[in-house]
Write a structure and sequence with these properties.
heterodimer; A: Rossmann fold; 8 helices; B: alpha/beta; 2 domains; ten-stranded mixed β-sheet; 7 helices
């Protein structure tokens, strides 16, 4: 599904990712762990199409050259990034935004757009599953939401858009244990044989609830070690400095 | 210009049989305008918008005479269909139609051609020009305790063949105690390169409410100036909303004298400008007695080489203790060549007051754009959603639901 070959990225001539390689197959859950400044967020930004990076190498998503696609086209193809810091958008109603987003993607795929009633039914159902306060759907997007509510809102968007590849950028940071469980349940509910996940995190904690198939350790822009779920536990014990 | 002015003024005087008093009033105003001419940047109030230059650049030489005996075609003017309304239709400065068909006949009194206000006014040279050249006097009185059932829409139109002309219109309004008027100004420009000069006087008696919505949406090459002079008695409320967008140049000036306790004035505006359009809102809110309130919010979205100016003044006299005055302006500049000028002025002589102001300008937030695009919206859609969101809180300040929806539709703001 996703193939990253020799990806290098620079920002203002500062090298962030170097010869990065990763392959994610349909249905797989990959976790990338790494210390601050190792390039984790850069990776998620580049995959979802944020501007401002000089890149070399190749990224293929279902055999499409990712770099030839605009940000919104990547979303249309099924890439979703759950933001580390979801943005507050004043004046934009959360429901309106969700419906606009879903219908933009459906339209691009040549699918039938949802009308207001169909949409509300869907969003209510998903909000209930995620224990997301329905009243907040009528409010301005993320404005006045707590940190946990913003993260839940990301997962709500994810479950409504039903992407093929979901990238979760430190979704666990700032979540209390109950919210963490709810978020994990939301992710697990989407785990199907065709949906893949790339989970970026500092801590092993989230991985207790979302069991990854592969764990990679990212340091100084490179994957220095890959393994199964047990690698996360090893990291937790030894720390990043002593892993080899 | 001076010769043209004199010729046109002579013609104007011949058209009507003015009383000596009226004639003197017109002559005095005319002399005053001759002396001062169009305002230019030497005047503090006009330093961001040099009208003299703007007229020269966009119109060239103006003529000032309009034949008010001529009947203008009004059936071709497209009226608002979304909401039932009373109407006044003004073509080239001439009031062609006054229609209060939804109202009780004895509650709305229209005085036309029954003596002119002859009080000397020293507001600015444009008011002098207006008084010298405007058509016959028109005053509308809303009787005590009467709220108009439907809004009044004033259509400001120009004839198809009118060009390089200055047109002047003036209407005086009196809202008696506890009366209420919703007034919408709509511009229907059928010709280019004219200078429209509009002057309203409002007397708001105790507990009366005036809501004035000025909608300049249709794209046109005219230059416009509008002056609202509002005098407010105790407990009265004035709400002014300006959607400033379509004209080549438009300056809206709002003067509110808060003369009675617990009176309040709200001035809210949107500049939605493109190309080389240049618009301004100038407010003077004069807090003259205790316990009065004013609130102003102006938001701008500026494309290409457009320019917006907001000069908001709050004046608090030494008697006006417990004044609550607030103003805020925010601008989004969508191009490097667009320009937003804000000049907040607070002149305060009382010591127990609450007054504040703020102003910000910047570009669209790249991170917000990225966020929305990562959810499948293209750049245009993301930008539109952000701009609508940015403007929404000004629109939400409109207290009349019907008119709020009309304006939302005009701006394409969805909920």
């Amino acid at each position: 599904m996703l193939k990253i070959n020799n990806l290098s990225a620079k920002i203002d001539n500062k090298s962030i990712l170097q010869d990065f390689k990763l392959e994610i197959n349909p249905g797989e859950v990959h976790a990338i762990m790494g210390p601050n400044g190792s390039g984790k967020s850069t990776l998620s930004n580049i995959l979802s199409g944020k501007k401002g990076y000089d890149v070399t190498g190749e990224v293929l998503f279902e055999n499409n050259d990712l770099f030839s696609l605009e940000t919104e086209e990547r979303a249309h193809k099924g890439i979703f990034l759950a933001f580390q810091y979801p943005l507050e958008i004043p004046g934009v109603n959360t429901n309106v935004f969700l419906k606009t987003s879903l219908n933009a993607i459906k339209k691009a795929r040549g699918e039938k757009e949802l009308d207001a009633i169909q949409f509300l039914k869907l969003v209510k159902e998903k909000a209930k599953e995620l224990k997301f306060d329905e009243e907040k759907l009528g409010r301005q997007l993320n404005v006045g939401f707590s940190g946990g509510e913003k993260k839940k809102n990301e997962i709500l968007q994810m479950s409504i858009l039903n992407p093929k590849l979901s990238i979760l950028d430190e979704t666990d940071s700032g979540l209390d244990i109950d919210a963490l469980k709810t978020v994990a349940e939301g992710v697990n509910a989407l785990r199907k044989k065709n949906n893949s996940f790339l989970i970026i995190t500092h801590y092993q904690r989230l991985l207790e609830y979302i069991k990854p198939d592969f764990v990679h350790v990212l340091m100084n822009g490179k994957i220095i070690k890959s393994g199964g779920p047990e690698l996360a536990l090893e990291l937790e014990k030894k720390g990043y400095e002593n892993i080899n | 210009m001076e010769d043209q002015l004199k010729i046109d003024f002579e013609k104007k005087l011949k058209d009507f049989s003015y009383s000596d008093q009226e004639k003197k009033f017109k002559e005095t105003n005319f002399e005053e305008f001759l002396k001062q001419g169009f305002p230019n940047r030497k005047l503090e109030n006009w330093k961001f918008s040099d009208l003299n230059q703007i007229i020269k650049n966009n119109i060239g030489e103006l003529t000032f005479y309009n034949d008010y005996k001529k009947e203008n075609q009004i059936d071709k003017i497209e009226l608002i269909s979304e909401l039932e309304h009373n109407k006044i239709i003004i073509v080239d400065g001439k009031i062609e139609k006054i229609d209060f068909k939804f109202e009780d006949k004895d509650k709305v009194v229209v005085l036309v051609e029954q003596g002119e206000e002859t009080i000397k006014e020293n507001i600015n040279s444009l008011i002098n020009l207006n008084n010298a050249f405007s058509n016959k006097f028109c005053k509308i009185i809303i009787k005590k305790n009467y709220s108009l059932k439907k809004p009044l829409v004033i259509y400001h139109s120009t004839n198809k063949n009118t060009q390089s002309k200055n047109t002047n219109s003036r209407i005086d309004f009196k809202l008696e105690e506890n009366a209420c008027l919703r007034l919408i100004d709509i511009f229907k420009d059928n010709s280019e390169k004219n200078f429209l000069n509009i002057y309203y006087n409002f007397e708001l008696d105790k507990s009366s409410i005036l809501k004035n919505y000025k909608i300049d949406k249709a794209i046109n090459n005219n230059v416009k100036y509008s002056y609202n002079n509002v005098k407010q008695e105790a407990n009265s409320i004035s709400e002014t909303f300006i959607l400033s967008s379509g004209s080549k140049f438009f300056k809206n000036e709002i003067n509110c004298d808060l003369l009675g306790q617990h009176s309040s004035a709200f001035v809210n505006g949107i500049f939605d400008l493109d190309d080389e359009n240049h618009h301004e809102i100038k407010s003077n809110i004069n807090h003259l007695v205790e316990n009065t309130k004013s609130y102003q919010l102006v938001k701008s979205v500026l494309e290409k080489k457009s320019k917006a100016v907001y000069q908001g003044k709050i004046f608090v006299s030494s008697e006006a203790q417990k004044t609550d005055g607030y103003q805020l302006s925010n601008a989004i500049l969508l191009s490097e060549n667009s320009e937003f000028n804000a000049k907040p002025e607070l002149e305060i002589y009382a010591d127990d007051v609450k007054c504040s102001h703020g102003s910000s300008s910047g570009s669209l937030d790249d991170n917000s754009i990225f966020y929305l695009m990562s959810r499948g919206l293209n750049f245009k859609e993301a930008k539109k959603l952000l701009i609508n969101g940015f403007l929404l809180d000004v629109i939400e300040k409109i207290t009349d639901e019907e008119i709020k929806n009309l304006i939302k539709n005009l701006l394409g703001v969805k909920e």
